[in-house]
Specification:
The chain is an alpha+beta fold and 110 residues long. The chain has a five-stranded mixed β-sheet with strand order 3-1-2-4-5. The chain has one domain. The chain contains three helices and five strands; from the N terminus they run ββααβαββ. Strand 1 and strand 2 form a beta hairpin.
């Protein structure tokens, strides 16, 4: 089983490679970023595969997978691992990725 890992400041998300490739392949909104990610996944032989931090697009993929009940999330501060159905979704707002918050921007168009 190939594991894919995406880390934020406070959490580590883990998924199976197949879960991600299935999501990207069935995506109705294929983009250059999704194609680049598929290429990266198919060429990587590491286990676990670590998604580079600069891949902001992957944060949206993580949210889709978590919403589908896929993978697991490990809280860095407490060390506990959670299944997606144990998580509560909240809006954090308008950061660079869905996991970051831009305090200076409060919605709307700047």
């Amino acid at each position: 089983m190939d594991t894919l890992v995406y880390e934020t400041e406070t959490a580590t998300f883990s998924f199976e490679r197949d879960e991600i490739t299935k999501l990207l392949n069935r995506s109705e909104n294929r983009t250059q970023e999704s194609d680049d990610l598929l290429s990266f996944l198919s060429s990587s032989i590491d286990d676990p595969i670590k998604i580079p931090e600069e891949c902001d697009y992957f944060a949206s993929i993580v949210l889709d997978l978590v919403n589908e009940g896929k993978g697991s999330v490990t809280c860095k501060p407490c060390g506990k691992t959670y299944h997606p159905d144990q998580l509560k979704s909240i809006t954090v707002g308008h950061g660079r990725t869905p996991f970051s918050v831009n305090i200076k921007m409060k919605g709307g168009i700047k």
